Amino acid sequence: MVIFAASLFSAALAFVVAYFAARTLGPESYGRLATANAIVVVIVGLTDFGVSTALVRFTSEHLNDKPRVAPYFQGALRLQLLVVLVILAIVPFTPRLAEFLGGPEMRLPLYIGLISSLFLSLGTYTNALLQTYQRFKVIASLNAGLSTLRTVLYLSLVLTSALTLLNALVANLVVAVLTLAVGMYLRPRIGVRSSWLEQKLALKEMYRFGKWLVVSYALNAVLSRLDLVMLAHLRPASEVGHYAVALQLAMFMPLLLSSLTTVLVPKVSALPDSEVRSYLRNTLFGAAAVAAVLIPLVLLAGPVIEFVFGDKYAGAVQPFQLIMGSFILTLFINPPTLLFYKWNKPKILTYMNVITATTLVVLMFVLTQRFGAVGAAWALVINAAFSGCVFAVLLRYQLERVESVAS
What we know:
Helices cover 85% and strands 0% of the residues. The chain is an all-alpha fold. Helix 1 crosses helix 6 (136-159), helix 8 (196-234) packs across helix 15 and helix 10 packs parallel to helix 13 (317-337).
């Protein structure tokens, strides 16, 4: 509950930052800022490797046995330091990446973004330690505090008429540096050194456990910002700005879906087979009720966006409506798919993630190239509908198998 409250608070502040940045910078510069931020999110997501989940799995029950857990924590840190070297190796290729993402104007945003990703990637390690030791209040306070700092920096730039693309990027960099610094200061101390051989064995064990997680984390990292990256490559920066505003307005939906998953996972795990169909009926009815509340918001998007962000963001209206449509479809899909964890079939979800990821890449490329921001949003809707159909077939097949065994 504390983590959710902090996430909700941070999301609200992120909207404030987006509001002032979008209105002040305009669609073109805001599009470049959003592209740089998207690259940071992808890099940090790709370099997570499911470390926090693996650390919880292998150390949470033995935290008092420091010699036993030290190789896992120190091996994970060594892995994250290696990741920093990999990110540094990308820096010389920044000019080429800039050409791919819109031209020479993207060089400086990408340079600053790559530096930010160094600190944020290392910050995932400190967050993993705090999560393993169940310091959830510390995590919540840290996230809320850093979000507040970022908002204060942006507001200060707005009030002094100094909010430019460069200054916005520097503000993000300052927050990234402090994320690592404060996290390292607050991290639990182990106080025991392990040998390289012990760390190597610990890393191998975590890899064997988390190899499927690595695939899922990598796919999620890429897919989470694929639309913005594809838009930046294929369309003008102003269209990226329109789409980024639409995406920011819809960001409360991932929070809703994440919270719903957090609540349902333990219930689904303990669900008797005889109550599975009842669970499906209830979750689908609940999704329909939420959708009925959200549809008026979708229909009124035009006046709301133009009032909040101004006439120059009228191009964000249709993308927002379509993005919300994809999230509403996902609201019907996610709760039923949790049953695959109950049936101990996580590989099915991973395979499906690969299939839908491939489909989304193709849809994004074809539709974005032809229809711009609207095409990118349509790709999300079509992919969500396709995923729902495939999951429905797999779910029905697995449910019939379970019921036939039970009878």
